[in-house]
Amino acid sequence: MAGTNYRTTYSRSLEQREDFWLEASRAVDWSREPAAALDDSAAPLFRWFPEATLNTAYNALDRHVEAGRGDQDALIYDSAMLGIKRSFTYAELTALVARFAGVLRSQGVGKGDRVVIYMPMIPEAAIAMLATARLGAVHSVVFGGFAPKELAARIDDAGPAVIVTASGGIEPSRRVEYLPAVAEALALSSAGALPVIVKGREGFATALSDFPDWLDWDQAMERAVPAAPVEVAATDPLYILYTSGTTGTPKGVVRDNGGHAVALSWTMANIYDIGPGDVMWTASDVGWVVGHSYIVYGPLLAGATTLLYEGKPVGTPDAGAFWRVVQDHKVNVLFTAPTALRAIRKADPEAAELARYDISSLRTLFAAGERLDTETYRWAGSVLDVPVVDHWWQTETGWAICANPRGLEDLPFKPGSPTVPMPGFALSIVDGSGAPVEQGEEGNIVLGLPLPPGTLTTLWHNDDRYVSSYLAAFEGSYATGDSGYQDADGYVFVMGRTDDIINVAGHRLSTGAIEQVIASHPAVAECAVIGVADPLKGQRASAYVVLKAGVVADEGELARELVALVRKNIGPVADFKHATVVQALPKTRSGKILRKTMRQIADGDEYVVPSTIEDPEVIAQLLGVLRPEGAA
User: Fold this and answer.
1) Nearest C-alpha neighbor of 543 from the set 570, 517, 569
2) Nearest-CA neighbor of 286 among 72, 56, 590?
3) Is 193 buried (19+), middle (13-18) or exposed (0-12) by CB count in 10 A?
């Protein structure tokens, strides 16, 4: 691609948008090549690569086999839960995907139909996704283990032709039964009877025989006729991925085929510096956007080897789990959440487990999903001795809004910043009325329209909600819902959600900035700061901290030290006086701390615990801490 450095490339992506993305589209094999990059006739709804056609699964699999690399590993499955390791070459994975596409076709699935996939982290999850794409159908992956009510809501919204599931998922301390959950979800939904395909796993109480009308994955595969890739329009949907809405109704983010393939191909080369034969491990779940983009699609589009891990960063069996996987599979790039790094650091602050493994293959560590605090950033860089790249993106964007483009130019790092905006993202910082703020001043982070390829095109069957949720607040821009600032070098600092800005006696303060200071204390593994209602000052900052493993601290003395740290680094204006030690913080399965829910509890407001919570018991444990007076 033209442009030898970041600045030139970024400028060109905004000033010569169509030329830039048409050039990027050459990384994709098209059935009918794009003649134009952008259709803006229905703005603010934009479509990328109109009239072009392709098949995403063909681009991820068949073309690599046809290029003579069928014997290269495409997918490695590593289950720390079961002690299983298995690899699939590009030829093997292509054959399995084609055969399962035949299974889906035998159940009536065709172009444009939806397939709901409710699976644990096993190879069949990726196979089901790719097989759906092979048919030109639309998959909607629901995180395995979601409550039946939540699964039912997604079934009703997506209107699937088929559901694909497994016996259950395996956690360190329990097994989660999926089949009763699917049966209950179908009973709750308005879908009626649907074909259900089940991948059987041993050790679960509920068997497929309890549901005689459902299909056994293995038996169906034996008799299936492989299906060829189906040509679809670049603008046709590839998948729906639900994200929680503020109304309680999930929002179905729609990703198209063409823009998605082009954008992810660009990121693999230019952000992650990954190409054919490299090994990329994204330690996430296929139920999340990170798993869609960088477990299943991105690495395979690039002809790399992707790793699917069934396990945890700690406890399967210890804090060396990640380093064992890097060693065993010669991982070149590891992508994980800051929460995972904090969990490892909490359990093994001196990284003693790391000494047992050879991680010399590792070139770069990428982090996203939750703001990467500077202490965790420094710790990871120090113990791993590789670059640590914080990058920022959202379910809606599908790839990084801001990053350090390692394959394009090695930019200097600034702790606390995900570096600079990526091509196509016209990022600016504005005040509540949409006017630009002064350089270095915190404000709302917005993205000028059109968004680049690979981002959401709309919400499933709900253009109006898409516009009202994302495009109405700031004219001509997408509202990220995050606040932050940009420095003189163009580096972006994301401080948190806009509702994490608190007002203390008229002073607007970022809870993220206070958290960053608190996390620098040597006893603190992680923390959350919320704004609690105060009758005198409007709000006051209150911190909840988790200590590192083995640390014993006097809570009163620790609180005094944290107050002094905040006063020194932020100033008396923060009026910070309250810090409490807790055993754990409430988080979603993707690692985001539920600060809004914590604040609602502390203020005595009504609250709904999100369905995405990792451990519901943590909320119960925090009730007495957050509301010590037992207020109703």
Assistant:
1) 517
2) 590
3) exposed
Please state, as a whole number, how many other Cβ atoms lie within 10 Å of the Cβ of residue 437. Answer: 15
In tens, the pLDDT along 574-596 reads 778 889 899 888 887 767 788 87
pLDDT (0 to 100) of residue 507: 58
Q: Find out whether 303 and 60 touch, Cβ atoms under 8 Å.
A: no
| pLDDT per position as a tens digit, 483-538 | 899 999 999 999 877 666 676 755 557 787 788 889 899 999 999 998 888 776 67
Listed in sequence order, the DSSP H helices in 110-257 are: 123-134, 148-158, 179-188, 217-223
Sheet arrangement for strand 333-336: 84-89, 73-79, 305-310, 279-282, 333-336, 364-367, 388-390
Stated pTM of the model = 0.84
For CA atoms 10, 16, 17, 18, the dihedral sign is negative
In sequence order, what are the residues at sequence separation of 6 or more whose Cβ sits closer than 8 angstroms to the Cβ of residue 105? 135, 227
Round to whole Å and give the CA distance between 217 and 213.
Answer: 13
Q: How far is 537 from 392, CA to CA, in rounded Å?
A: 33
Q: Which domains does the chain have, with CATH numbers?
A: 6-311+391-484 (3.40.50.12780), 505-626 (3.30.300.30)
Task: Return the SS3 of 56.
Answer: helix
Question: β-pairing, 38-42 with 45-48?
Answer: antiparallel
Phi, psi of 456 (to 5 degrees): -60, 140
Please, what is the Cα angle at 76 between 67 and 102, to 5 degrees? 65
CA proximity to 132, closest of 39, 233, 238: 238
Residue 211 CB contacts under 8 Å (≥ 6 apart), including other chains: 179, 183, 196, 198
Place of tokens 């202490």: 375
Q: At 363, which helix (H) or strand (E)?
A: none
> What pairing do the DSSP bridges indicate for beta strands 279-282 and 333-336?
parallel
